[in-house]
Design goal:
Blueprint (H helix, E strand, L loop, with lengths): L8 H12 L2 H8 L3 H15 L4 E4 L2 E4 L1 H21 L13 E6 L1 H6 L1 H11 L4 E5 L6 H5 L5 E4 L9 E8 L1 E6 L10 H6 L1 E5 L15 H4 L1 H8 L5 E6 L2 H7 L5 E6 H4 L8 E4 L8 E7 L7 H14 L14
Parallel strand pairs: 3-4, 3-5, 8-9, 8-10
Antiparallel strand pairs: 1-2, 5-12, 6-12, 7-10, 7-11
Length: 322
């Protein structure tokens, strides 16, 4: 085997694959597509002349060779990381850096407060400049003028790196005096009046066409698949506004559950599961290749990921070499 011809990124792939035992989850953690990860596994099998992971009744299971390789690969990646660590490694306690982050209304309400709490404790002099989707274009992110974008993206340039932060279901927020609460069925839901809230894209927004179901998003697409349509009376691009307006007796706001949970302290509102199934949304973090290997940027990405998903806090920093 010619060591010079080995793609070291494949070792990172293998490390994550052996930990997750799932191609899709491994791809999400590394911010690559599932086909790219599947191709990586194919190359790894050829490299080691071993299946490495095989399908069983319990999912993907490592072979004996893969089990033996796992501690060796982990140690090798750790040594490589220390070898290439820049001399001017980022020191969060001493840094006065400004990070510019585009955050949607949704992520600004649910994720950013937790991120700021960690920043105050771990990097007290770091400043976070939070921009809205209307302030930023993909061009700004691509050229590194904005450190990262956190949103629910319907499209994204292929050149961007990305990482899935979490998935979220939907909930309905309505006034506790609304009589529909006593019989919250799909029939009564459709007869009620609704608040629409969404802003998934970037750049200056445009008016909504109520007849364009695909433009309306997840809730209305789910209803359309069932052959139904709801009566929308208010269109807003701000989830906080939707939650405030939902206090009116005759209006229902169907929102991501993490947002709806923020309203549990309000005595005049009730949070209920929707009377039909809605596909979960994905909150993602995206950034430019220009900043991918920046030590400070890597630190912030890892902090955000650990806040969004505490179970991934032990995720090897070596994965950032991909």
């Amino acid at each position: 085997m010619n060591l010079a011809r080995i793609d070291l990124n494949l070792l990172v792939y293998l490390d994550v694959l052996l930990r997750e035992k799932n191609v899709t989850r491994a791809a999400e953690l590394l911010g690559i597509t599932q086909p790219a990860m599947s191709n990586g596994l194919k190359r790894l099998r050829s490299l080691f002349n071993d299946p490495l992971l095989v399908r069983t009744s319990e999912g993907m299971s490592p072979t004996e060779r893969a089990i033996a390789l796992r501690p060796q690969i982990a140690e090798a990646l750790m040594l490589l990381e220390h070898a290439v660590l820049p001399r001017d490694a980022f020191d969060p306690l001493e840094s006065k850096r400004i990070f510019r982050v585009m955050a949607s209304d949704y992520s600004e309400s649910t994720l950013i407060p937790m991120v700021l709490k960690r920043l105050r404790a771990e990097a007290p002099d770091v400043t976070l400049d939070i921009l809205t989707p209307s302030d930023v274009s993909f061009h700004d992110v691509e050229h590194g003028r904005v450190d990262m974008a956190i949103n629910r993206f319907s499209t994204m340039p292929q050149s961007f790196h990305q990482s899935l932060l979490w998935r979220d279901s939907f909930s309905c927020v309505l006034n506790k005096e609304n009589p529909i609460i006593q019989d919250f069925t799909l029939k009564n839901y459709l007869e009620a009046r609704h608040i629409w809230a969404s802003k998934t894209g970037m750049g200056v927004g445009v008016g909504v066409d109520p007849e364009d179901v695909q433009q309306l998003g997840w809730v209305d697409e789910a209803l359309s698949a069932l052959g139904y349509k709801r009566e929308i009376r208010v269109f807003t691009r701000h989830y906080q506004a939707a939650m405030l307006i939902s206090s009116q007796n005759d209006l229902i706001a169907t929102l991501p559950s993490r947002l709806a949970e923020l309203q549990h302290h309000r005595d005049n509102l009730v949070v209920l599961p929707p009377p039909f199934e809605i596909q979960p949304i994905q909150l993602k973090m995206a950034w430019s290749s220009l900043l991918h290997h920046d030590a400070g940027h890597q630190w912030l990405r890892q902090l955000i990921k650990s806040v969004a998903n505490p179970e991934s806090a032990s995720f090897l920093h070596a994965s950032q070499a991909v």
